[in-house]
Amino acid sequence: MNYLAHLYLSGQHSKIAIGNFLGDFVKGNQYQDFEPDIAKGVLLHREIDRFTDAHEVVSQSKKRLSEKYRHYSGVIVDMFYDHFLAKNFNDFHSVDLKTFSESHFKRLIAFQDQMPARAQHMLPYMVANNWLLAYADLKGIHRALSGLSRRTKFDSKMDESIQDLTQHYSLFEEEFRLFFPDIQSHISEFREDLINS
Predict the structure, then answer these.
(1) Cβ distance 179 to 59 under 8 Å?
(2) CA distance 82 to 79
């Protein structure tokens, strides 16, 4: 799952959403340097990643890509699933995607000076180009995959994966729709346990 799904799965908790957004930028025990609710958001991010990586439906999606993209197939599937969440956002949330993304960007910008340097650097680009909203169409998801491809150490070919998405579009969307209720249910329980701990 990518940025949109992580923010969505944070529920109504703004500080947990900030921590969840920061999950990829916070290594090891560094989460303990943040206030408790933001630290819990980092732990929530890790649980989302753990559950996603272990899910059999996600494994099906990755298998379709693994021969060409190898260990990058998981990153690509995360992006594909964010595309399907963005495209069908009204099926999952009472607020439209534009309003949802703008409200989360305001919270993230307010916290920006306390973020790790890499997150501070990335956030203005994310906001200016409204990545969350852009994920909803194929051009936007292709731009995001191309950006990821440029930043990898090796030739990941992630920019080419848009062809795989269009070729197997209905299969990937079906797998997303099978998987997403499972992660919603699991993370809803995990999140409440985390908040009450």
Answers:
(1) no
(2) 5
Kindly calculate the radius of gyration of the chain based on its CA atoms and give it in whole angstroms.
16
Amino acid making up residue 82:
D
Q: Which residues of 115-151 are buried (b: 16+ CB within 10 A; e: fewer)?
A: beeebeeebeebbeeebbbbbbeeebbbbbbeebbee
pLDDT at position 156, please? 84
d(CA 64, CA 125): 31
Q: What percent of the chain has pLDDT over 70?
A: 100
**In this structure, what is the dihedral angle of CA atoms 45, 86, 13, 34, given to the nearest 10 degrees?**
40
The two three-digit tokens of residue 120, written as one number? 């501070």
- pLDDT tens figures, 35-87: 999 999 999 999 999 999 999 999 999 999 999 999 899 999 999 999 999 99
73-87 and 56-69 helices, crossing angle to 10°? 120
Say if CB 119 and CB 30 are below 8 A apart.
no
Name the burial class of residue 72, with classes exposed (0-12), middle (13-18) and buried (19+) by CB atoms within 10 angstroms of its CB.
buried
Q: What is the pLDDT of residues 84-109, one digit of tens each?
A: 999 999 999 999 999 999 999 999 99
- Contacts for 44 with CB less than 8 Å, ≥ 6 apart: 9, 10, 16, 19, 20, 23, 187, 190, 191, 194
